[in-house]
Amino acid sequence: MTTQAAAPAQPQYQRKLKNFLLDARFQLKFAVYFIVPTLIISAVLGFFIARTTGSLFSQMNEAVEARSKSAETSKELGTCTLNNELTKGLDDPALMTSLEARSKEIDAKYEFEKQAVVQQQKDLVAQQQTTIAVLFSLLALFVLVSGLVAILLTHRIVGPLFRIKRMGREVTSGIIRPPEYGLRPGDELKDVFDVFATMVKSLRERTESDLKTVEAAMAGDKDALAKHHAELAARLEKKG
């Protein structure tokens, strides 16, 4: 009873950052094709977002200015009212004291409103700057992620192509060695790789068969050599 040898286990891949650029020229070229439309879209979006945001903050700034003017108007009206009352009650000490207290109250209210308006303007400017910075950072991140996604996608194509080209170079140089393991999980072009792997395996088997025929001929079996000659001629004349 013969024991069948176990097939070699496929190695577990540990992807490293430097291995994602197997064909840097192709992958970066593809990434540029991917990034350029993304940049155009981001520029258009950025323009409209900046325009909309600018309009919104402009309206908010106008509201702040209106609040400031309203505070000034309120102070002027209060001052005029006090002046009118002052002219009527110059001889009334109690009224003068009351008017002085109201005047201080109006001034204090105006100063409070003025400080609130100044602080609101500062907060508005800071908020506008933060909003614009966040928006453009998100757009830049979007472009960067698009480039990384392009590299990751091409990595799944370049990996199989790299192995297929290596198999072709080996066969061209006379090395007929079928691949010991398949593609990585998630790789593309599996069908193409399998076709090339089957081709190399078939070439290997035919070469081994040719070797056996030559060995038989060297041992004196002329029929084996003639038969092999006929098989080679049939291969050359065979059409797909």
Tell me what the structure shows.
It contains four helices and no strands. The chain is an all-alpha fold and 240 residues long. The chain folds into two domains: 21-155; 176-240, no CATH class. Helix 1 runs antiparallel to helix 2 and helix 3 (190-218) runs antiparallel to helix 4. The longest helix has 80 residues, at 93-172. It is rod-shaped, with a radius of gyration of 42 Å.
Structural class: mainly alpha
Run of helices and strands: HHHH
Percent range for β-strand residues: under 5%
Report the span from N to C terminus. Answer: 41 Å
Report the sheet with the most strands, covering strand number, pairing sense and barrel closure.
none
Name the poorly predicted regions: 1-8
Shape, please?
A: rod-shaped
* Helix content bin: over 70%
Number of helices: 4
How many structural domains can be distinguished in the coordinates? 2
Mean pLDDT: 75
What is the tally of beta strands? 0
Calculate Rg over CA atoms. Answer: 42 Å
Descriptive labels:
single chain, mainly alpha, rod-shaped, disordered N terminus
What topology emerges from the helices and strands here?
Layout: H1 24-88, H2 93-172, H3 190-218, H4 222-237
Could you write a compact summary of the structure shown?
By secondary structure, this protein is mostly helical.
